[in-house]
Amino acid sequence: MTKTMWLARTALILGCMTTACSLLPDRPAAPAVHDFGPPLTGSRAAPHVWSGVAVQAPDWLHDPKLRYRLLYAQPTRVQFYALDRWVAPPPNLLAQTLSAAAGRDGCFLNIDLQTFEQVFPQPGQARVIIEFLARAVVSTGTSSESLAEQRFALSRACPTANAAGAVAAYSLAIDEAINRLDGWLRTLPDGTLSACRSNREALVSDRR
To answer: Within 10 Å of residue 21's Cβ, how many Cβ atoms?
Structure first.
């Protein structure tokens, strides 16, 4: 094989390789990962009148996907953003955030998270909805006793009708949830709060 033929053959092989590479599909972009971000109103920083939190939720909420629903077109269809997701399932994020805002004294909270999604009432307009049942409980040995309960329904308009707008609205809604939980617990009868504090002290003493 002459040098000229060798160079031509090499050029042909390289050309085929380049063409083949160009025909390969592009790798899908990695999704952006979100949490609730830093507190936007300062409500998460101060100690609140609960001493701990447990969050329960339906199986379908134990998923890091960012959910949305087009109420104007397909109200029964739950959809998910392909390029955005949570760093952890919403129940885990909520439990971590509420636990970080807890104080030393107060009731233990059981939270039943029921709704956590973005909805579009019409094109270009979106809101996030968080619904949960909160119970103030005390431990009775192997079980717990509910002293008070309250349902909460929060709704926040999204600044933009997309995933980024949903994440921003959720952050504000979580701050609102903390304020409303704290306000509710402070309106309970003194006897309820005293029972919570006594129960907390007894649990701490038992661990020593």
So the answer is: 8
In CATH, the number for domain 49-207 is: 3.40.50.10610
* Torsions phi, psi for 34 (to 5 deg): -125, 155
CA 156 to chain centre: 14
In angstroms, the CA 36 to CA 34 distance is: 7
Q: Quick check: 92 and 63 in contact, CB under 8 A? A: no
Q: Report pLDDT digits (tens) over 182-197.
A: 999 999 887 777 777 6
Domain boundaries in the chain?
A: 49-207
Distance CA 151, CA 31 (A): 34
Residue-wise pLDDT tens digits, 9-60:
554 444 544 444 444 556 667 889 999 988 766 667 667 889 999 999 999 9
pTM: 0.80
What's the rounded Cα separation, in Å, for the pair 131 and 156? 12
